[in-house]
Design goal:
With 204 residues, the chain is α/β, with parallel strands linked by helices. The relative contact order is 0.16. The site of flavin mononucleotide has 16 residues, from α1, β3 and β5.
Length: 204
């Protein structure tokens, strides 16, 4: 079983990457507790920024970008984390998902998350990320996680749980969706099955 986190953070170290790592670990440990053998992978979009721009203008991905797209498309569960830039997802984050086949995420369990300088932009999860993945027909988990600078190390307030509790809840929800989803054939398996059917046809 494979969990993939996409991080669009640009800084080093990156709070977006840190959040992606925590969420992946939360889902992984929940699935491991249920007896699943889980592999986690992180796609760092920062390293692919030039390749993403080149793909947009040429129509062709670099080998590294093609591998990243395949990793995301083949994941059993996806964690998508962006920094908030100008009250929305970052351009790099959106451009990467623009390059993914619109059917590749259909039905895939996805946890959306974002980091930002201010808690006032936390609804970016609901007005930008959730509609994007709804359009791609992904199965987005109910809890989306936003981490503003002040959330790191905070225990929450009367209206919200602290960040660690939200990470645990969201990771648990992703794990539950991943575990509940029936084993699916990957696109590669579909192609192989189609080829087998075609080779079985007799035209003589
Ligand atoms: C160009 C730019 C625009 C930003 N716009 C916002 C914004 O609208 N709202 C917000 O809360 N934070 C904004 N930020 C702050 C980043 O979202 C925040 O620092 C983020 O956590 C950085 O992630 P990183 O550490 O992974 O690079 C902006 C930062 C940059 C560089």
């Amino acid at each position: 079983m494979k969990l993939v986190a996409v991080s669009a953070g640009l800084s080093t170290p990156s709070s977006t990457r840190l959040l992606a790592d925590h969420l992946a670990e939360s889902a992984r440990s929940e699935l491991a507790a249920q007896g699943y053998d889980v592999e986690t992978d992180v796609v760092e979009l920062r390293e692919l920024a030039v390749a993403v721009a080149n793909n947009l203008v040429t129509g062709f991905p670099s080998p590294q970008l093609a591998a990243a797209i395949e990793t995301v498309s083949g994941a059993h569960g996806l964690i998508a984390v962006t920094p908030v830039f100008t009250a929305s997802y970052s351009g790099l984050f959106k451009s990467f998902f623009d390059l993914i086949d619109p059917d590749a995420l259909t039905g895939k369990p996805v946890l959306v998350a974002a980091t930002g300088g201010t808690a006032r932009h936390s609804l970016v999860l609901e007005h930008a990320l959730r509609p994007l993945f709804a359009y791609l027909r992904a199965a987005v988990v109910p809890t989306a996680v936003y981490a503003a600078s002040e959330d790191w190390g905070s225990g929450g307030d009367e209206y919200t749980e602290g960040l660690p509790a939200r990470i645990r809840r969201a990771g648990g929800e992703l794990a539950a969706l991943v575990a509940a989803r029936p084993a699916e054939e990957t696109p590669t398996d579909d192609t192989a099955a189609l080829e087998r059917q075609l080779s079985d046809l007799r035209f003589d």
